[in-house]
Amino acid sequence: MANHIVLFEPLMPANTGNIARTCAGTDTTLDLIEPLGFSVDDAHLKRAGLDYWDKVNIVYHDNLAAFMATVHDMSRLFLVSKFADQAYTDPNYTDVAGGDFYFMFGKETTGLPEPFMRQHSEKAIRIPQDDSHIRALNLSNSAAIVIYEVLRQQNFNNLERSHHYENDKLK
Description:
The chain is an alpha/beta fold. The protein has a single domain, classed as Alpha/beta knot (3-Layer(aba) Sandwich). Helix content is 27%, strand content 17%. The protein has helices at residues 13-26, 43-48, 64-68, 114-119, 139-153; strands at 3-8, 29-33, 58-61, 77-80, 86-87, 101-105, 124-126. The protein has a 7-stranded parallel sheet with strand order 3-2-1-6-4-7-5. Could methylate the ribose at the nucleotide 34 wobble position in tRNA. Belongs to the class IV-like SAM-binding methyltransferase superfamily. RNA methyltransferase TrmH family. TrmL subfamily. One of its GO terms (biological process) is wobble position ribose methylation. Keywords: Cytoplasm, Methyltransferase, S-adenosyl-L-methionine, Transferase, tRNA processing. Its EC number is 2.1.1.207.
C-alpha cells in the first residue's frame, strides 16, 4: 500500500519541489501528469526540493488518461478541489491493506479540468477556507494538509514518531 500525491499539469516548480520534499518525508509517491510547466532540471524545482529529489518515488504520466489507467480501484481516488462539498477529513483512509490511495490536485491556475470534475464529482474533497479572502490555498500547503490527515488516520504508518537529538541540537 502506498499513498500518492498526484499533480495534474503543475506549472510552478517551487510548488512541485516543496511537494516532493513532503513526499520524501512521508514516504509518499509523487505522480506527475504531463505536460509540466517547467523542466525537472529547473533551478527553482531543485532549490525547493534540494537534497530530497532523489529520495522521492516519482512516476511520470503522459496525460490524464494514462494516469487514470493506473488507478485500479476508483474508490481510492480523491480529487482535491475548493468546489467539493465533502471535507478532506470526512473519508476513511485507514484501509491500508486495500491498495494505494491517490490524492489528485489540479494545476495552480485552473485546477482540474471541469469535464473530468463533473464526471467524478463524488470523488471530490475540499479543505475548508474562507473564499471571501483568498481564491485558493497554496498547492504545496494543500498537499501537505491532505497527506498528513491521511497519515494521521493511518496512525503515521511506518513513520518515525520522534527523533533523539544530541543535546547541542536542542538549544
